[in-house]
Amino acid sequence: MEYHQTELFGFTKLTSALDVLARSKDHTKVTHAGVLSSFFSLIKDTKKIQCVLDLPLAQVALPDSLRNIDHGLTHGWNETTYDVPIKSKVHPENFTVKGWALVHHAGYLTYPHHDAESTLTWVMMDIGVKFWVLFSPNDRSDDRKHLQDFALRLGNFTENESWIRQNCNAEVVTLRRGDMLMMPPSQVHAVYTPVASFVIGGHFYHYGGMHLTKMSRYLDVTVADCLTNQDLHIALETLRRMMIAIPTSLVSSDMRSLLALCVMVTQGKQYLAKGGSTSFILLTWTVAWD
Fold this sequence. Notes:
Blueprint: H1 2-9, E1 14-19, H2 20-25, E2 31-35, H3 36-41, E3 50-56, H4 71-77, H5 93-96, E4 100-104, E5 108-113, E6 120-127, E7 130-137, H6 144-154, H7 157-167, E8 168-175, E9 180-183, E10 189-193, E11 197-204, H8 210-227, H9 235-245, H10 255-266, H11 279-282
Helix pairs in contact: 4-9, 6-8, 8-10, 9-10
């Protein structure tokens, strides 16, 4: 773990840690600012259980054999910037979310949630062990109202335990060093970290998963503050680029996914996550191409 601190981040890197004790007192105030060295210094303190979710590792990417499945990058950005030059501000998260790290103290429980901006997500264990719990409804998996209710109930297991046991399937995936997990958009999951752990991963979009991205983004319109564990601003600009690339792209996809992409791009305001800024919808050059 010392190598990762010194070689990847440095002792004085500013960060924001999530604290279990603070979460137990007020779930809306769980983070505190500090430097990464302070977080690592507490890693063996049994009285502290913390994690850091926002460690950018832009140099990290999907394994070579999978790199081209990031359609937002390989098609959306690579194939459009000549015909449609970048003439407005682009949020850096369009690119920094391609690679990141998660660092957890032992004993950390991440409650059920789905990942922000409805991306596909990949993770690979580097140090430690994690138990990834993947949830799915018993039925009506294409009913977005039911999925919204399903996800919200999972967020409060104590009060909804009986309903969850009757209406929910769960699978535990154990990740050890070198193991990789890939999740589709809208996949509700929880994670338990029994020992101090370091994980690398990233987010990306794929033409074949746009119908799932659309459904997931619908859930965030009214309950993003309850269903996600981070606030990102990457979706619409990348989705617009993917839309512009379709005429020249060699990627084939089913009509359902392409229609879902069209709807998200042309009706951006209707898929703005709760608490999101409309500036990410309006103030971009590609809006003229909608």
